[in-house]
Amino acid sequence: MILKIISALLILFAVFMGIKQGYAMISGKQEMLDMFSKWSFSKNAVTALGVMTFLSAFLIAIPKTFLWGNFLMAATILFIICLHLMDKDLKGVAIEVPFLLLNLVIIYLGHPLASKSL
Predict the structure, then answer these.
(1) DSSP code, position 64
(2) Is the whole model's pTM more than 0.70, yes or no?
(3) pLDDT along the chain (118 residues), means of 10
(4) DSSP code of 63?
(5) Is-contact 97 81, C-beta < 8 A?
(6) Looking at beta carbons, which pairs linking 13-17 to residues 24 or more positions away fall under 8 Å?
């Protein structure tokens, strides 16, 4: 029971952060555009990445698409980590790693509303 509560809280946090960051990318907030412009991303590319982040956050909330949403979110975070590593920006990597680990912990704990059998 305690694990289901912890899992639910972690899922809520991941969904909130995914929606927040996805919306920031979709709406073209200047901080996001500045961060991705150093890797020569256009505004449309940032918007596409934002749509993917927003979609993955939505998929995490639904028990049947929970795993796919986590994989998509983890892939997006891993992509951003790789971009930071190309620039040797360890501070950027250190910021992203906890969010990657969060997705892995959520996958391990499972969705609290899912049935036992897959």
Answers:
(1) G
(2) yes
(3) 91 95 94 92 95 95 93 95 94 95 93 71
(4) G
(5) yes
(6) 13/102, 14/57, 14/60, 14/73, 14/99, 14/102, 14/103, 14/106, 15/57, 15/58, 15/60, 15/61, 16/57, 17/57, 17/99
Q: Of 61, 101, 60, 100, whose CA–CA distance to 80 is shortest? A: 100
Amino acid identity for residue 5 in this structure: I
* Predicted pLDDT at 117: 47
The CA-based diameter of the chain, rounded to the nearest angstrom, is 47
The reported pLDDT for the residue numbered 90 is 95
Residue with tokens 């694990």: 3
- Note the pLDDT of residue 92: 92
In the chain, alpha helices (H): 2-26, 30-37, 43-61, 66-86, 90-109
**What is the residue whose two structure tokens read 């961060």?**
35
Q: Residue 109 is encoded by which pair of tokens?
A: 């704990």
Please name which of 109, 80, 115 lies closest in space to residue 13, comparing C-alpha atoms. 109
